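Lecture notes, structural biology module. Today: joint structure prediction for complexes of three components.
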Amino acid sequence: MNYWLIKSEPDTWSWDDQNKSPKKTTEWDGVRNYQANNCMKDMAKGDRCFFYHSGKERSIVGMVQVVKTWELDPTDKTGRSFGMVTVMAIQSAKSPTTLAQIKDEAKLKDMVLVKNSRLSVQPVTGAQWKQVCKMAKLSNKQE
DNA sequence: GCCAACGTTGGC
DNA sequence: GCCAACGTTGGC
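The predicted structure, tokenised, for the full assembly:
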């Protein structure tokens, strides 16, 4: 199992939208960046991702699970084989964790979120995952 | 609203 | 294949 972080501008697609959508799932389309696309290609069914609000909020607000692996994004008109995965909301953060808090935590100083803030889909290490779960009051147990 | 960081485009 | 110009993202 691998861990990831996906970002969304809440005005475009918020955690609330995610939870209101049928079966709490959504196709994570619209990614037009090779690095982000490659991350999605590496995702396996059951992998988990933090859901991060960029823009004004800048915080980790929940956790989603990959329910369908990478497939071609039908909205892509570039002809460059950008794709998407399908994710399902599984937990809301009881204590949403802000970017400022993450930056203050020494154990998280190497997070991609800190080092390359522009990447919209990014890997998270096991140690970082555990630490953020603790801070956000998210359960790390497997169903 | 500004600007740094980064990715992409296109001329050569 | 290089690199300048440009556009976009996202934190501040």
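Point to remember: The longest helix of chain A spans residues 126-136.
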